[in-house]
Amino acid sequence: MANRARSAILFFTVAFLATASSFPPYQLNSWTTANGLPHDSIQTILQTRDGFLWFPTLNGLARFDGLNFRVFRKGTTKGLTSNAFSMALWEDRSGALWAATRDAGVTRYQNGEFRTFTIADGLPSNQVLRIDEDDRGVLWFYTAYDLAIWKDGHFKRMGNAVASPLVLRPNRMQMGYDSPYFGFWRLAANGWERFAHGKWSPFPIPASIKDPSELRIGAIYEDSKRRLWYGLENGPHSTVWRRTS
User: Fold this and answer.
1) Where are the chain's structural domains?
2) Stretch 43-64: mean pLDDT, rounded?
3) How far apart are alpha carbons 244 and 210 in whole angstroms?
């Protein structure tokens, strides 16, 4: 009886695994404006440590709890001065969410309240391209004209302390269309360098690129571990190179 019971359990386990393996590992769902999303063009996605997903769009900032969207817009949300958000989105060490707009500065969401900062508050430009944080917890804001840090409740311009504004301008022809959102770039004597998270770092390139000035990146992505993944336009299209910081 015991042997037959063990056989039955074994058969059930194998049958269950065989059945389970026939199902796809992921379930795909699609959300659009019909489901509460404010705009069908998503700039980027960020999950904050409280579990919410945030979607900056061209028609408001959306927060998703797994079932429903809550949309924050100018006119209905105190502290918001624009509905056109860009790709720059960051959660700092304190848990505050920073979301850049296309032309109206940067908005901070902290303790349930929004506040927008502009050139009137010390930002070099109302067009914020990127936000990141260094190892000391200092926030860096990359704008169309200069670089600034947020420290002790104030913005301080840092462009001249890092490099001249001409050097800080990314070259979209070489670093891809989205290059402004991934830090500033310069071609130094030893090859490409990238400014991000408060410092300049070497950007190693594949050995197949003999002349650094010939580097052409088509698409680039920075993951949560600060690793850059990019594809080459002047190399095998199936090749993806990873640069670790």
Assistant:
1) 33-162, 165-243
2) 91
3) 20
